[in-house]
Amino acid sequence: MMFNWETFEPDEYSRGETPSFVDLTERSYITATGHATDHTADESFLALARAAAAVAKTISGGPETDIPVKNFKGYVPYPVQAVWQPAGDGEDFKIWIKQPLFIDEAAFNAAIKKTDLGDVSADQIHFEHLAEGIEIQTISNGPVTVDGKAAARLNAAIKVGGFKRLHEDTHWEVYIDGLPLTASKQVILRFEIDPNGAVLDMVHN
């Protein structure tokens, strides 16, 4: 059976409004960084997201796309996600696309050479080992705004739980219904937190 993140990791990619917790330890990611003046509608963001997602799709083909992967198992590519931080006339962003544990840098390097990146250059797409940390998450219906209902739910839960929000000007968005965003698509919003000693019921991955 092909591995599908939405089926096998439903708690990590929850579509529920009730805030939940995830502890996301170090994994491999395809990444890209940039600056946007129109958040997720910014063409520079969308171009990098398309290119990174195209590389992820090439890798997911494994033997069928002539990508060297030891112990390959079929899977659905993970969704694009991005971390956002205010900067100057807009926001700086970093795109992350999680990779299965059996995907390594050799597979990434092979895929870069075989993928049409559009107007993006190959040196803008990277392979990194990163960890998100402990986060509180909820769903947003349509594009995320800093003063929207999803952010308000998380801030209220943080206050009630006695947690500390880390990097208060930074947040995560996971585009589980794909890009570009419309009002009908859902996005997971995440804030990184310090639980302040609380024992949380959460996903560890």
Structure description:
The protein is α+β, with helices and mostly antiparallel strands. The protein has two domains: 89 residues; 104 residues, Regulatory factor, effector binding domain (Multidrug-efflux Transporter 1 Regulator Bmrr, Chain A), CATH 3.20.80.10. Helix content is 22%, strand content 31%. It contains four helices and ten strands. Strands 1, 2, 3, 4, 5, 6, 7, 8, 9 and 10 form a ten-stranded mixed β-sheet that branches. Strand 3 and strand 4 form a beta hairpin. The model has no long low-confidence stretch (mean pLDDT 95).
Question: Could you name the key traits of this structure?
Answer:
single chain; 205 residues; alpha+beta; Multidrug-efflux Transporter 1 Regulator Bmrr, Chain A; 2 domains; 10-stranded mixed beta sheet; 22% helix; globular
In short:
InterPro entries: Reg_factor_effector_dom_sf. The chain has 205 residues and is an alpha+beta fold.
What is the overall silhouette? globular
Helix/strand class? alpha+beta
- Structurally, the number of domains stands at 2
Name the CATH homologous superfamily of the largest domain. Regulatory factor, effector binding domain
> How many strand elements?
10
Chain-averaged pLDDT:
95
How is the biggest beta sheet arranged? 10 strands, mixed
Under CATH at level 1, the class of the largest domain stands as: Alpha Beta
Tally the helices.
4
**CATH-scheme architecture of the largest domain:** Alpha-Beta Barrel
**Which quaternary structure do these chains form?**
single chain
Distance between the termini: 21 Å
Gyration radius (Cα, Å) is 17 Å
Strand content: 25-35%
Query: Roughly what percent helix?
Result: 10-25%
Order of helices and strands: HEEHEEHEEHEEEE
CATH topology of the largest domain: Multidrug-efflux Transporter 1 Regulator Bmrr, Chain A
**Weakly predicted, low-confidence segments:** none
